Amino acid sequence: MSTEVGSRVVWVARHADRLDFADPTWAAGATHPHDPPLSQLGQRQAEALTARLSTETITHLFASPFLRCVESALAIARTCGLHVKIEAGLSEWLNADWFPDPPELEPVARLAARYTHVDTSYTSRGQLHFGESGGEALERSAATCRRLTEEFDGNLLLVGHCASVLGSLAGLIGRPAVEGVIADPPYCSLSKVIRPAGCNWRLIYTGDVSHLPAISGA
Questions:
Q1: 28, 94, 170, 184 — which has fewest CB within 10 A?
Q2: Of all helices (H) and strands (E), which one includes residue 144?
Q3: What phi and psi values does residue 215 have, to the nearest 5 degrees?
Q4: How far is CA 55 from CA 44, 58, 190, 193, in A?
Q5: pTM of the predicted model, to two decimals?
Q6: Domain ranges in the chain?
Protein backbone atom coordinates (compact mmCIF):
# COMPACT_ATOMS: atom_id res chain seq x y z
CA MET A 1 0.00 0.00 0.00
CA SER A 2 1.64 3.21 -1.12
CA THR A 3 1.63 6.49 0.77
CA GLU A 4 0.58 9.84 -0.66
CA VAL A 5 3.55 11.48 -2.40
CA GLY A 6 5.10 14.23 -0.28
CA SER A 7 3.34 13.15 2.92
CA ARG A 8 4.99 12.12 6.15
CA VAL A 9 3.50 9.09 7.92
CA VAL A 10 3.26 7.92 11.50
CA TRP A 11 2.04 4.35 11.98
CA VAL A 12 0.80 3.42 15.45
CA ALA A 13 0.26 -0.25 16.35
CA ARG A 14 -1.04 -1.93 19.48
CA HIS A 15 0.90 -4.96 20.69
CA ALA A 16 -0.29 -8.45 19.74
CA ASP A 17 -2.01 -11.04 21.97
CA ARG A 18 -0.29 -11.49 25.37
CA LEU A 19 0.61 -14.77 27.03
CA ASP A 20 -0.96 -14.13 30.43
CA PHE A 21 -4.37 -13.64 28.83
CA ALA A 22 -3.98 -16.83 26.79
CA ASP A 23 -2.63 -18.76 29.82
CA PRO A 24 -3.92 -17.36 33.15
CA THR A 25 -1.52 -19.67 35.05
CA TRP A 26 1.59 -18.12 33.48
CA ALA A 27 2.02 -15.24 35.93
CA ALA A 28 2.21 -17.51 39.01
CA GLY A 29 5.67 -18.76 38.08
CA ALA A 30 6.95 -15.75 36.14
CA THR A 31 9.96 -13.65 37.18
CA HIS A 32 8.20 -10.52 35.90
CA PRO A 33 4.47 -11.36 36.22
CA HIS A 34 3.38 -7.91 35.01
CA ASP A 35 5.49 -8.09 31.86
CA PRO A 36 4.20 -11.02 29.77
CA PRO A 37 5.59 -11.93 26.35
CA LEU A 38 3.40 -12.68 23.36
CA SER A 39 1.27 -15.80 23.16
CA GLN A 40 1.62 -18.13 20.18
CA LEU A 41 -1.35 -16.36 18.61
CA GLY A 42 0.34 -13.04 19.32
CA GLN A 43 3.49 -14.18 17.54
CA ARG A 44 1.46 -15.08 14.46
CA GLN A 45 -0.34 -11.75 14.66
CA ALA A 46 3.01 -9.91 14.82
CA GLU A 47 4.18 -11.78 11.72
CA ALA A 48 0.97 -10.76 9.93
CA LEU A 49 1.52 -7.13 10.90
CA THR A 50 5.08 -7.41 9.60
CA ALA A 51 3.80 -8.67 6.26
CA ARG A 52 1.35 -5.76 6.15
CA LEU A 53 4.12 -3.20 6.72
CA SER A 54 6.88 -4.89 4.71
CA THR A 55 6.25 -2.75 1.61
CA GLU A 56 6.05 0.54 3.53
CA THR A 57 8.94 2.95 4.07
CA ILE A 58 9.64 3.15 7.81
CA THR A 59 12.60 5.19 9.01
CA HIS A 60 12.42 4.76 12.80
CA LEU A 61 10.74 2.11 14.98
CA PHE A 62 9.84 2.81 18.63
CA ALA A 63 8.29 0.43 21.16
CA SER A 64 7.13 0.52 24.76
CA PRO A 65 9.60 -1.24 27.10
CA PHE A 66 6.99 -3.88 27.99
CA LEU A 67 8.00 -7.23 26.48
CA ARG A 68 4.76 -7.72 24.54
CA CYS A 69 5.46 -4.50 22.63
CA VAL A 70 9.14 -5.26 22.05
CA GLU A 71 8.30 -8.72 20.70
CA SER A 72 5.55 -7.24 18.50
CA ALA A 73 8.12 -4.90 16.97
CA LEU A 74 10.98 -7.35 16.46
CA ALA A 75 9.73 -9.11 13.33
CA ILE A 76 9.15 -5.72 11.71
CA ALA A 77 12.67 -4.64 12.68
CA ARG A 78 14.22 -7.76 11.15
CA THR A 79 12.21 -7.54 7.95
CA CYS A 80 12.61 -3.79 7.43
CA GLY A 81 16.26 -3.56 8.48
CA LEU A 82 15.53 -1.42 11.55
CA HIS A 83 16.39 -1.39 15.24
CA VAL A 84 13.79 -1.07 17.99
CA LYS A 85 14.17 2.08 20.06
CA ILE A 86 12.80 1.39 23.56
CA GLU A 87 10.61 4.37 24.49
CA ALA A 88 9.24 4.60 28.02
CA GLY A 89 6.82 7.34 26.99
CA LEU A 90 4.82 4.72 25.07
CA SER A 91 4.39 2.50 28.13
CA GLU A 92 1.26 0.97 29.55
CA TRP A 93 -1.02 3.09 31.74
CA LEU A 94 0.62 2.57 35.15
CA ASN A 95 -2.37 2.82 37.43
CA ALA A 96 -2.40 1.29 40.90
CA ASP A 97 -5.47 -0.87 40.17
CA TRP A 98 -3.51 -2.86 37.58
CA PHE A 99 -0.10 -2.71 39.28
CA PRO A 100 0.10 -2.96 43.09
CA ASP A 101 3.76 -1.92 42.77
CA PRO A 102 5.81 -0.38 39.96
CA PRO A 103 6.22 -3.15 37.36
CA GLU A 104 9.64 -4.72 36.99
CA LEU A 105 10.72 -4.59 33.35
CA GLU A 106 13.74 -5.99 31.57
CA PRO A 107 16.52 -3.36 31.25
CA VAL A 108 17.39 -2.32 27.71
CA ALA A 109 20.82 -3.96 27.95
CA ARG A 110 19.24 -7.30 28.80
CA LEU A 111 16.69 -6.96 26.02
CA ALA A 112 19.52 -6.21 23.59
CA ALA A 113 21.44 -9.28 24.78
CA ARG A 114 18.41 -11.42 23.98
CA TYR A 115 17.24 -9.60 20.84
CA THR A 116 19.89 -8.29 18.44
CA HIS A 117 17.56 -5.69 16.91
CA VAL A 118 17.18 -3.62 20.11
CA ASP A 119 18.92 -0.24 19.88
CA THR A 120 21.19 0.29 22.91
CA SER A 121 22.25 3.78 21.83
CA TYR A 122 18.78 5.31 22.09
CA THR A 123 17.79 7.35 25.14
CA SER A 124 14.08 7.35 25.95
CA ARG A 125 12.42 10.75 25.58
CA GLY A 126 9.54 9.95 27.95
CA GLN A 127 9.46 8.54 31.47
CA LEU A 128 7.41 6.04 33.44
CA HIS A 129 5.00 7.55 35.97
CA PHE A 130 3.66 4.92 38.36
CA GLY A 131 0.24 5.76 39.80
CA GLU A 132 -0.68 8.12 36.96
CA SER A 133 -4.31 8.86 36.10
CA GLY A 134 -5.83 7.89 32.78
CA GLY A 135 -5.63 11.47 31.60
CA GLU A 136 -2.00 11.71 32.61
CA ALA A 137 -1.20 8.50 30.73
CA LEU A 138 -2.84 9.86 27.57
CA GLU A 139 -1.00 13.17 27.82
CA ARG A 140 2.32 11.44 28.56
CA SER A 141 2.08 9.37 25.38
CA ALA A 142 0.75 12.35 23.40
CA ALA A 143 3.71 14.48 24.45
CA THR A 144 6.12 11.64 23.65
CA CYS A 145 4.68 11.13 20.19
CA ARG A 146 4.82 14.84 19.39
CA ARG A 147 8.44 14.99 20.52
CA LEU A 148 9.43 11.98 18.44
CA THR A 149 7.91 13.49 15.29
CA GLU A 150 9.79 16.72 15.97
CA GLU A 151 13.17 15.07 16.62
CA PHE A 152 13.16 12.26 14.07
CA ASP A 153 12.71 12.67 10.32
CA GLY A 154 10.96 10.31 7.97
CA ASN A 155 8.13 7.89 8.64
CA LEU A 156 7.77 6.51 12.18
CA LEU A 157 6.23 3.34 13.58
CA LEU A 158 5.21 3.34 17.25
CA VAL A 159 4.23 0.12 19.04
CA GLY A 160 2.39 0.58 22.30
CA HIS A 161 -0.67 -0.27 24.39
CA CYS A 162 -4.30 0.80 24.24
CA ALA A 163 -3.71 4.01 26.22
CA SER A 164 -0.46 4.95 24.49
CA VAL A 165 -1.96 4.31 21.04
CA LEU A 166 -4.92 6.54 21.89
CA GLY A 167 -2.68 9.22 23.39
CA SER A 168 -0.24 9.19 20.48
CA LEU A 169 -2.97 9.54 17.88
CA ALA A 170 -4.80 12.25 19.81
CA GLY A 171 -1.54 14.09 20.36
CA LEU A 172 -0.88 14.32 16.65
CA ILE A 173 -4.35 15.26 15.43
CA GLY A 174 -5.02 17.61 18.35
CA ARG A 175 -8.20 15.98 19.65
CA PRO A 176 -8.57 14.54 23.17
CA ALA A 177 -8.89 10.74 23.11
CA VAL A 178 -11.43 10.94 25.94
CA GLU A 179 -13.95 12.56 23.60
CA GLY A 180 -14.41 9.27 21.79
CA VAL A 181 -12.95 10.53 18.52
CA ILE A 182 -10.70 7.46 18.51
CA ALA A 183 -12.04 4.02 19.46
CA ASP A 184 -10.06 1.60 21.62
CA PRO A 185 -7.69 -0.27 19.26
CA PRO A 186 -7.81 -4.10 19.11
CA TYR A 187 -4.71 -6.22 19.62
CA CYS A 188 -2.17 -5.88 16.80
CA SER A 189 -4.29 -3.27 15.06
CA LEU A 190 -2.74 -0.57 12.94
CA SER A 191 -3.49 3.15 12.75
CA LYS A 192 -2.19 5.66 10.23
CA VAL A 193 -1.68 9.42 10.48
CA ILE A 194 -0.24 11.50 7.66
CA ARG A 195 1.01 15.05 7.32
CA PRO A 196 1.04 16.36 3.75
CA ALA A 197 3.70 18.99 3.11
CA GLY A 198 2.68 22.27 4.72
CA CYS A 199 -0.39 20.79 6.41
CA ASN A 200 -1.41 19.45 9.81
CA TRP A 201 -1.48 15.79 10.79
CA ARG A 202 -4.56 13.97 9.53
CA LEU A 203 -5.96 10.66 10.80
CA ILE A 204 -6.45 8.24 7.87
CA TYR A 205 -7.68 5.23 9.82
CA THR A 206 -7.43 3.67 13.25
CA GLY A 207 -7.75 0.18 14.70
CA ASP A 208 -7.39 -1.58 11.33
CA VAL A 209 -7.15 -5.39 11.62
CA SER A 210 -7.64 -6.32 7.97
CA HIS A 211 -4.26 -8.06 8.05
CA LEU A 212 -5.43 -10.44 10.82
CA PRO A 213 -8.68 -12.28 9.85
CA ALA A 214 -7.01 -15.46 8.65
CA ILE A 215 -5.34 -16.06 12.02
CA SER A 216 -7.44 -14.15 14.56
CA GLY A 217 -9.42 -17.25 15.54
CA ALA A 218 -6.46 -19.66 15.49
A1: 28
A2: helix 134-151
A3: -120, -5
A4: 18, 9, 15, 17
A5: 0.93
A6: 10-208
Residues 6 or more apart in contact with residue 121 via CB below 8 angstroms: none
pLDDT of res. 17: 97
Q: How far apart are CA 116 and CA 51, in angstroms?
A: 20
Dump pLDDT digits (tens) for 11-47: 999 999 999 999 999 999 998 899 999 999 999 999 9
Q: What is the pLDDT of residues 101-132, one digit of tens each?
A: 899 999 999 999 999 999 999 999 999 999 99
Which sign does the torsion angle of CA 189, 195, 199, 201 carry? positive
3-state helix, strand, coil in the chain (%, to 5): 35, 15, 45
Record: fold of 10-208: Rossmann fold (3.40.50)
User: Please, which contacts does 110-119 make with residues 24 or more away whose CB atoms are closer than 8 Å?
Assistant: 111/65, 111/70, 111/86, 115/70, 115/74, 115/84, 117/74, 117/77, 117/78, 117/82, 117/83, 117/84, 118/70, 118/83, 118/84, 118/86, 119/83, 119/84, 119/85, 119/86
Mean pLDDT of all residues belonging to the chain? 92
